[in-house]
Amino acid sequence: MNQPNSWYKVKAVDFDNAEIGNIYGNEANIQKRVLLINANNLPEVKTKPGFKLGFRLISSTENTANAQLEALVLSREQVGRMVRHNSSKIDVVRKIKIDEKEYAIKAVILINKAENKYKKFVRAEANEFIDSLGEKKTLKELVLEILAGKIQNQLHKKLSKIYPTRAAEIRMIEKLGN
Length: 178
What we know:
8 strands
């Protein structure tokens, strides 16, 4: 027999059960769904525009659904605004382990027009930096540092020593597999 649909308040388990939105469905069909919300909607989180957080619904009770942080996404529009004439865009994709789960971290680096040998040096240094991110941090700590801009500033400073860097941005963190 089909269960009737109703509205569920969604609470973020990782952020002290802060209410992050509502979802329509029933106990059976809201499990495993992903909810994308604007990062500024979370209490005590201040960030530049364009960042969204992905929460996977993990459990539900009467009118409440619990969600766990699973992804961070920077909008395509924000990335597009960073790219300028006479610059080279370098995409970096790395798989790292955070809390015994595998995640893909995608970064975009903008440098002044350069030859391929300089791009290789910049990409290798960015790979090394991103590989070291998951060693001592939880996903929540990493996401909060990215939203505050700390990780991007560290990456920018490190890469600027190799070649003049215009910008470095973490554009996505996503969980791999289930």
